[in-house]
Amino acid sequence: QGKFTLLRDSRTDGSFLVHHFLSFYLRAGCKVCFVALLQSFSHYSIVAQKLGVSLAAAKERGQLVFLEGLKSCLDLLFGEEEQPGQPSPLQFLSGSSCDLRALFDFVRVSLSAPAGDSWKGPVLLVDDLSVLLSLGAAPVAVLDFIHYCRVCVCCQLKGNVVVLVHSNEDSEDEENELLVNSLCHHSDLILWAEGLATGFCKDVHGQIKIIKRLSLRQAEQDLVQIYQYKIQDRNVTFFARGLSAAVL
Amino acid sequence: LVFTEEDKYGLYSNLLFKYFLAEGIVCGHDLFVASAKEHPDNILKELPAPLLDDSYRKDLGDEAAAVKSEDFQDSMKIAWRYQNLPKIETSPTTYTRFGHYYDVSKKMSPELCQSVKLHSFYLHEELPFEPKMKTWNMNSGYARLLQSIQRIISQEGFDGSDPQKKQRNVLRIGIQSLGSILWGDDVCCSDAPEDPQSLTKFLYVLRGLLRKSLSACIITVPAHLIQNKAIMERVTNLSDVVVGLESFIGSERETNPLYKDYHGLVHVHQIPQLNSLICDVSDTKDLAFRLKRKQFTIE
């Protein structure tokens, strides 16, 4: 509880980790606030169904609060004048404010449990943070947003935060690299999915590095484990390096 | 959202663009063509003619049964995935196999062109940005284009907003040379553009519009002119498909014996991963193209 997990991908798509955490926490009975910036609700819903969870049902019983970024953005830009009491979570897009306060308020309100709420620990899931930079948010604003979320969700509400970011080894996107490096330093657990250095392979889709921070002060004490993985239609298989089923 | 990086002189990407539009006409989809360079009417006059085939569809019943169940959020995002058409084709052109073939040396007849509804957006003929629109914080050319697309989607019912409309159709959107200076964006000319986020914001909003309607879009961009690589990384993240065309014209590869049968390379930077956990499963990633007198082939 109270943990900040960073999902990171390089040279490959790490969204399978997001799908995993979403269905994992829902099945565990947690209240989840999912900020889905890049894909539609039906995309996640269809994959979740393959993993055995119904997002629509979770939404209905109040266990899942789903922010569909794409839809919210369209509502903001093409919709009617917004009501004063209900600012759009993506308000920073229209330039009226340059911070992500509205987005944070949305998260805070979604996860603050009303009396009588029987869900176990709250969870904030974000897919993916790098998009906010593409939409004009400054890296500092994004880091502030994450900081506020941590304080609220991890410390005050004793919940967990899981965030996905993209990064590339030779990336020229300095703002993104700044964001990713900063988040790495503040994470309790980092799951880093990387495409193979040798290039595309049918049987091994990539490698995942699991970094557990034992102490936030000394990086040498981190526990690092590396596995390779292959993604299938309904699950992901992990194996030790060089021991994929195709090789054995 | 198909994002195509143009080859240096735009010859081959233009061809791909026209194929996309031509396929739309043959399938009976509505078209929306946007450009700041060439008037859309001129683009539409230059589409390749389809090769008519005498063999008919095996069974009309099969086609009807393959129709997807209603779900407006399951919109079509990929350029070549359009086989589940709800409308029964009554025109003389028929389906033989997946997609159609075209003769590049002949032009599509005007009658066939007019058989579908055509919407166009030519930046220099559009009215200036309306002041009463909310501040969008985006390049005004892009903002006008988005408004135009949204208006067509909503008016013509591509987003399911008109329950009276029984026959649902697909809207094919083609945007030519986005990001070029003609759109008022300096992202292709300068290393430190004035408004680097306009292009990415545009793509995000466009993605939203595509996801909530029955439409697919192809965009061509003179990516070789964009010096700021960070922008290209972000753009790749925001698109479903990213394909780059590299022509051999004027490059040392033109005389390389390995490539003597081809005119250029096709780089597939990204393929869509929608509604599924599985990622890239293609067998090969080394593709090249060639343009013969009648046909453009990728192998």
UniProtKB/TrEMBL annotation, chain A:
Listed InterPro entries: ELP6 (IPR018627), P-loop_NTPase (IPR027417)
Which superkingdom does the taxonomy of this entry point to? Eukaryota
Q: Record keywords: Metal-binding included?
A: no
Q: Name one GO cellular component term.
A: cytoplasm
Q: Which UniProt keywords apply?
A: Cytoplasm, Nucleus, tRNA processing
Q: Does the keyword tRNA processing apply?
A: yes
Instruction: Give the pathway.
Output: tRNA modification; 5-methoxycarbonylmethyl-2-thiouridine-tRNA biosynthesis
Q: Where in the cell is it found?
A: Cytoplasm; Nucleus
Q: What is its main location?
A: cytoplasm
Q: What Gene Ontology terms for biological process does this UniProt record contain?
A: tRNA wobble uridine modification
Q: Which family does it belong to?
A: Belongs to the ELP6 family.
This protein's name: Elongator complex protein 6
Automatic annotation (TrEMBL), chain B:
Per UniProt, subcellular location reads as:
Cytoplasm; Nucleus
**Predominant cellular place of this UniProt entry's protein:** cytoplasm
User: Which pathway does it take part in?
Assistant: tRNA modification; 5-methoxycarbonylmethyl-2-thiouridine-tRNA biosynthesis
Q: List GO BP terms, alphabetically.
A: tRNA wobble uridine modification
Q: Which Pfam families match?
A: PAXNEB
Q: Please provide one cellular component term from the Gene Ontology annotations of this protein.
A: elongator holoenzyme complex
Q: Which PANTHER family match?
A: ELONGATOR COMPLEX PROTEIN 4, PAX6 NEIGHBOR PROTEIN PAXNEB
What this protein is reported to do is described as: Component of the elongator complex which is required for multiple tRNA modifications, including mcm5U (5-methoxycarbonylmethyl uridine), mcm5s2U (5-methoxycarbonylmethyl-2-thiouridine), and ncm5U (5-carbamoylmethyl uridine). The elongator complex catalyzes the formation of carboxymethyluridine in the wobble base at position 34 in tRNAs.
Protein name (Swiss-Prot/TrEMBL): Elongator complex protein 4
